[in-house]
Amino acid sequence: MTTLISYPNKKLWMAAIKPPMYSVAIMPIWVGTAVAFAETRIFHGAVFSTFLASAILILAWENLSNDVFDSETGIDKNKHHSLVNLTANKALIFGLGNSCLGLGLLGILAIAWWQQDLTVIGIILLCCALGYMYQGPPFRLGYQGLGEILCFFAFGPLAVTAAYYSQTQSWNMTSLAASVFVGIATSLILFCSHFHQVKDDIAAGKRSPIVRLGTARGAKVLTWFTASIYPLNLLFVLLGIFPVWTLLSWVSLPFAFKLCNHVLQNHNQPEKVSNCKFIAVAVHFWSCLLFGLGFMLSGG
Ligand SMILES: C/C(=C\COP(=O)(O)OP(=O)(O)O)CCC[C@H](C)CCC[C@H](C)CCCC(C)C
Ligand SMILES: O=C(O)C1=CC(=O)c2ccccc2C1=O
Predict the structure, then answer these.
(1) Residue of 18, 19, 43, 23 lying closest to 33 (CA atoms)
(2) Which residue CA neighbors atom 25 of ligand 1 most closely?
(3) pLDDT tens-digit map of 132-181
(4) Can you tell me the distance from the alpha carbon of 132 to that of 109, in angstroms, rounded to the nearest whole number?
(5) Ligand 1 pocket: which of 12, 24, 57, 66 to mutate (most atoms <8 Å of CB)?
(6) Using CA atoms, how far apart are residues 83 and 66, in angstroms rounded to an integer?
């Protein structure tokens, strides 16, 4: 009996915490560090692990505060796996979120202290500002359909560059090019997260890209953007900017096909399309992991 009662609860909590989503915090640090290793043979293990822990904490803040801010607009009233709805304690979730942010920023400050250089903390503060503007008052830019652009810059150019800089204290064009790959792969996840929420989004006045485009056109746009990362990788290899090993990322193509087929077929059926966000997480995880591995192998 206990199992029967607690199982759905456990599922709800896992949906609220969404552990697989945290790979989006890990991959920009992994790729930025891998490019740094390929270009300079430098690898600072303590900086890498501190940055990873901080990135995860900062993303936890983003997600906890997302549930807090969304509880204020009413958009999450049907979202049973909102942490605010689950705990009925907004102040607790807000406090927990801010503690994660504080701890995460402390880790980044430690990196700044080791480097005697404020560049990395400056870049990460900018990421946090974009994260706040996505969902917090008075901006709520996600409600205007601008989330994917913020997401691209935060997880792409800013986070990858910060990771590269944290290892080398220098700037690099290859890392900037690599950040475009990571930024697009991350924004695909956010784009996918809107397909099943059209009704609630319209009711709350949120003009997500899928509300704006409609689900059918959204599915086509998703297919083009998902497909774009693979030829982009090839182009940079042919230009001699990326090592040939980065083509390992093409091994993730079956997940990309699965994602596009699934969304093209089910875009207007919320209960069927709702899991596409997690197929997009698999595309992101495998493509970025193998992409970064390609840089590591070329530097070894
Ligand atoms: C919280 C995010 C998406 C959830 O959006 P939504 O409200 O539609 O979801 P629910 O339906 O589940 O409520 C992600 C938003 C990402 C944002 C645009 C940028 C975040 C920047 C991070 C704070 C940067 C982290 C950098 C780190 C890797 C160093
Ligand atoms: O809960 C979500 O839908 C998302 C959470 C999250 O942290 C994230 C980060 C980067 C891209 C997309 C997303 C989500 O969609």
Answers:
(1) 43
(2) 59
(3) 999 999 999 999 999 999 999 999 999 999 999 999 999 999 999 999 99
(4) 19
(5) 66
(6) 10
Answer yes or no: are the C-beta atoms of 1 and 35 closer than 8 Å: no
Are 164 and 175 in contact by the 8 Å Cβ rule? The answer is yes
Q: Which fold has domain 22-297?
A: Farnesyl Diphosphate Synthase (1.10.600)
21 CA → ligand 2 middle, Å: 6
How many Å lie between the centroid of ligand 1 and the Cα of residue 4?
33
The Å distance, Cα 39 to ligand 1 centre, comes to 30
Domain ranges, ordered by start, for the chain: 22-297
Using the mean position of ligand 1's atoms as its centre, give its distance from the Cα of residue 299 in Å. 32
Tell me what ipTM this predicted complex has: 0.98
Closest protein CA for atom 29 of ligand 1: 55
How crowded is residue 195: how many other Cβ atoms within 10 Å of its Cβ? 25
